[in-house]
Design brief:
The structure is a homodimer.
Chain A lengths: L6 H8 L3 H9 L7 E2 L5 E2 L2 H15 L4 H11 L6 H34 L10 H8 L33
Antiparallel strand pairs in A: 1-2
Helix pairs in contact in A: 1-3
The structure holds a DNA duplex.
Chain lengths: 165, 165
DNA sequence: GGTTGACCTTCCCATGATGGGAAGGCGCAC
DNA sequence: GTGCGCCTTCCCATCATGGGAAGGTCAACC
């Protein structure tokens, strides 16, 4: 009969919403909570501790599947810190890759915006850049590796003789 | 009888997948394509030009709803470049905010990883950081503004008398 | 004891942008 | 006239999260 909480209290104590706690349970990220006779879930401090762990990992951007692994390492007394570190370094790489990608997009757009007068006239290098620009875009994780030329010109595929139909 | 393409050719020429072209049409981002008697969609160079515009905007990270606005400005001869610029600057802010958020997560994690030996022993500051760390996390767009104390200790809500049940 | 309001339960749906895949029809080249 | 590659629509999946409905529970207060 230690400290026992319902899901709302566990949510407040862990920083994970009740909705998410149920979800994590449903996908097996955290073990199924005990139930009272009424059907209410019960949480003890250990459960809350685990939920807090998950929340902090989420705050650091770890995807749930990686958190699943982290939880396994957390509870494994025979783990090697090398495993944890490798996981963390992989994640850092991904975070920085995404950050770089976003910043690069911002930089390209900034270049266009700097060239734009921003007055009442319609002429606008930003629109023109979108119309005809090449937008290099380094492939950060899921990009289109297709190197087209300038579009709106020569169709590439399937047109040996123009004027079908 | 100008140059007319089916969706696959338009996809190749614009860099937008056929799947996405259909989707953009279904949500009204681009006008409904003409149809042949067979039901096949037909695209002319102007359509492809518009799709290329959308693709470049996507490459710069614009969400579809913003692209909808951009397309409107694009086709509006009475637009002011100020409108376009404002939209672009707003977007740049968002991109940089997200980039900062990701980089900050990476930095925090790097700090933990640097303190980790990464050897065969279980001791690991990374795990410890997740267990008890505070993970400040500046709120970039959707954060939890709840400032809890240290978790796993005092439940905050609803427990005037401990030991219910 | 009864009522009330805050809580809990499950279930379904939505987000944003994209892809996968099935089932069936079309087009053209050999 | 057959076959292959394209097209059509429709449904489902991703990833993490939230909203909301319909109905049951708990505890406090009168």
């Amino acid at each position: 009969m230690g400290i026992v909480m319902n899901i709302g209290q566990a949510a407040d104590a862990s920083g994970v919403s009740a909705k998410m706690i149920r979800h994590y349970e449903s996908i097996g990220l955290v073990p199924q909570a005990d139930r009272r006779d009424s059907g209410y879930r019960d949480y003890d401090p250990e459960d809350v501790h685990r939920l807090s762990f998950v929340r902090r990992a989420r705050d650091l951007g770890f995807p749930l599947e990686r958190i699943r692994v982290l939880l396994g390492l957390w509870g494994d007394p025979t783990r090697s810190s090398a495993e944890v570190k490798a996981l963390a370094l992989t994640h850092i790489e991904e975070l920085e890759e995404k950050a770089r990608h976003l910043q690069e997009m911002a930089d390209v757009l900034r270049g266009l915006a700097d060239a734009c007068d921003g007055d009442g006239r319609p002429h606008c290098p930003i629109i023109e850049g979108l119309e005809a620009g090449s937008v290099p875009a380094s492939s950060p994780s899921g990009e289109r590796p297709i190197s087209r030329s300038s579009s709106t010109s020569l169709p590439s595929r399937r047109s040996p003789s123009p004027g079908r139909r």
